[in-house]
Amino acid sequence: MKTSREDLIKVIDFWNTNIGSEELFGRELVEKINYKSKEVIDILGPRRSGKSSILKLIISRLGLGGDFLYINFEDPYFIKHNGPEVVEDLIDVFREHYGGNLKYLFFDEIQEVQYWEKAIRKLRDKGEYKIFVTGSSLSLLSREMSTALTGRHLSYMVLPLDFREFLFFKKISIDSKKDLVLKGRLISKKFDEYLSSGGFPEAVITGSQELLKEYFYDIIQKDIIARHQVRDKDALEKTAVFILSNSGKIVSVESIKDAFNLSFRSADLYVEYLKDAFLVFELSQFSFSLKKQTKALKKVYAVDTGLAGAVSFKFSEDKGRMLENLVYLHLRARESEIYYYRTKNRKEVDFFVKEKTNPKILIQVVWSLDGVEKRERELDGLMDAMNETGLKEGFILTYSEEETIKKDGKTVHIFPVYKWLLEDM
Fold this sequence. Notes:
The structure is a single chain. By secondary structure, the protein is α/β, with parallel strands linked by helices. It contains 20 helices and 13 strands. A six-stranded mixed sheet has the order 8-9-10-11-13-12. It has a five-stranded parallel sheet with strand order 2-3-4-1-5, sandwiched between helices. Strands 6-7 form a two-stranded antiparallel sheet. It starts with a helix and ends with a helix.
């Protein structure tokens, strides 16, 4: 549909007038972006995780005045006016009516524009603008970015708030180990809140659990059903709740197929759709054999413990798996190469982190080590994995216990999760 220049003036004015007027909390990702690069910066993450705010924080950090254009393509105007030409039309209208010194482009939820990648590549190749885009679809953006912008883009992933960011939103700053000691009781109390409510920014600010349910259904409807034309909405929702309920466990496509009487193809597609929308993640088992690693069953984790708990009472009741999920998200946010590890005698360790080809760390997560049998089981599994990987140190992360164990030339650090989340590994 042909775009109206008058309508575009209104759209541009709406989205650019309010930049800088709202209070924004800082996000760690803003400091990690390579601003000197000439490549397109794409920021990917789940709906409502703060991508729009991050773009506005970037605008503030760069100290931009009238030399930038910010557009959110989820504006209702773009439901019908979503051809690739709308991108250049917006730029033309901005230059004509808002000044010609345009240097920065910020396009939020760019996947709403058809064939957007062609428009962005054309702009990138001109070399006139620094371009930032965001999107809520992992495969859509990563696939089209890698196809159209090979070697011309840098990708960053944003997830709901980590624990340090959560505390910052609660106006609690942790700048040193001294703060960790002096504010320990307050931090521990806030950790309980974080564990149950999660890190979606608006839900953290308002304290609304109902918001989390809305986010779940928005992701299902807007990022999966509408995008992939899924017909059986009920089966998709049940699959999503089933996976979220079993976060921290091995979940197979076969088990989903049997649970909801689906074809294998449908069950497999539903899992891919949920991953694509950042609602769930999969974790592979480590193996030195790539073939074995590919065939091994995967564990699943939720994008947010609060959201998972809001739609699944079963998950919210299992505090140990909630702890494990938090540790996974912390590792994932740092883009670590992570796996779960199974020893030769079939003992499982929750996380095995590699750095290139080198083993880096083994982590076991458990709510408590109370009881001799449980303590020995967790320690034995970790020690076996340390022997097999050649690591001299390992971690057991718990809710509140802290201790250091030295045995057979190896060291096991038992550490509260909330402290570990606030310290660099």
